[in-house]
Amino acid sequence: MTDRHQSESAWGSNPPAPATVSPEAQRALASLPDAAGPADLVAHRALCEQVQRELGTTQMERHGVRMLEDEIAGVPVRIFTPATSAAKGVLLNLHGGGFIVDAGSVTENVPIAAYTGMTVVAARYRLAPEHAFPAAVDDAEAVYRALLGRHGAERLAVYGTSAGACLCAQLVVRLRERSVALPRALGFFTGTADLSRRGDSEFFFRPARERLDRTAQFFEYVADSDRYSPQVSPILADLRGLPPTLCLAGTRDFMLSQTALFHQALLTASVDARLELFEAMPHAHWIFLDLPESEQAFRAMARFFISHLPAAAGR
Q1: Domains, the chain, ranges and CATH?
Q2: Which of 78, 122, 176, 281 has the smallest set of CB atoms within 10 Å of its CB?
Q3: Contacts of 149 (CB under 8 A, 6+ apart)
Q4: Higher pLDDT among residues 205 and 47, named by residue
Q5: Is the pLDDT of residue 210 over 70?
Q6: pLDDT digit string (tens) for 178-203?
Q7: Burial 11-46 (b: 16+ CB within 10 A, else e)
Q8: HSE (CB half, 13 Å, CA atoms) of 205?
Q9: How many angstroms separate the CA atoms of 79 and 156, rounded?
Q10: Cα angle, residue 105 at apex, residues 100 and 110 outer, rounded to 5°
Q11: What is the mean pLDDT of the chain?
Q12: Looking at the predicted structure, is the pLDDT value of residue 2 above 50?
């Protein structure tokens, strides 16, 4: 039996929570479920909608942020406006959810709107498997171009978590290929820019059901597209000239490897990129609203956007 298997036998699905994280995080790590959500897609989407509605309402009440359901360039969007705003920057979010569910169009954005004092536009792009690549990138580009026409590139930044981070990388590579002005900043939060292969951390930290799954990753989204195309796997593109980028992940995050690999590729291309890691945190840990580490992550994101968008003043 390998050391890893011995550890799993002794600890169950989770190793012990270290003393180097907050007490709240220690309790959360001890009870973290080893599950990826319902296998049935309809049930999974319903669960995600419930989480966005319930946790999102808690966030909006806590931060005094207003949400408007709207449409831009034919794409449904959620627009978040902070209670007080002296900022002129606009942030475009592409939510996470494995390309098949909406796991963050509210929860990823309310604290960011509050802490930056900026308007956040969450594009509710078309989901797989009904709409495979490049539908989601098409929707993201349509919303970005509309915002570009209204505000100019100097006042725009884009960011996403997990699948949304991948979409952001796909978007900026496409924009550069089409000679469209790039945003001032990119937030690449616990994602992958390489759909041609898995990273090392995925074999250690993915839910057990997904670790045993031998099907191609994100097959619903990629479908028949070429995984080795730079449009699908932007890490394979010429990354020179991309905007300053903040990469975030946790040390128990199954996307840790892919986030670090994209950061490394950006540095190799002489892009102004930084990588921030959170001790013992699982994938997209900022969804756990009451963890100090969640607050720290949102604050780090906000500081990055404020520092790169002129006339931005958060609280």
Answers
A1: 33-308 (3.40.50.1820)
A2: 176
A3: none
A4: 47
A5: no
A6: 999 999 999 999 999 999 999 999 88
A7: eeeeeebeeebbeebeebbeeeeeeebeeebeebbe
A8: 23
A9: 14
A10: 160
A11: 91
A12: no
**Helices 292-308 & 23-30, crossing angle to 10 degrees?**
110
Bridge partner list, 93: 122, 159
Q: 214 pLDDT exceeds 90?
A: no
Calculate the alpha carbon distances from 250 to 98, 189, 283 in Å. Answer: 18, 10, 7
Q: What is the pLDDT of residue 208?
A: 65
18: left (phi over 0), alpha (psi -120 to 50) or beta: beta
Band of pLDDT at residue 225, cut at 50, 70 and 90: very high
**Mean of the pLDDT values across residues 134-157?**
97
Q: Which amino acid is at 292?
A: P
Q: Show the beta-strand stretches assigned E in the chain.
A: 66-72, 75-81, 90-94, 119-123, 156-161, 185-189, 245-250, 273-278
Contacts of 205 (CB under 8 A, 6+ apart): 252, 253, 254, 256, 282, 283
Residue 1, pLDDT above cutoff 60: no
Q: How many CB atoms lie within 10 A of CB 54?
A: 12
Sign of CA dihedral 84, 87, 92, 96: negative
Please state the rounded mean pLDDT for residues 124-133.
98
Is residue 280 within 8 Å of residue 132, measured between CB atoms?
no
Measured distance CA(144)–CA(157) in Å, rounded: 10
Neighbours of 207 (CB within 10 A): 16
Q: Tokens 């580009």: give the residue.
A: 141
Structure tokens at 47: 């669960």
21 closest CA partner among 285, 300, 287, 301: 285
The answer to whether 107 touches 52, Cβ cutoff 8 Å, is yes
pTM above 0.90, yes or no: yes
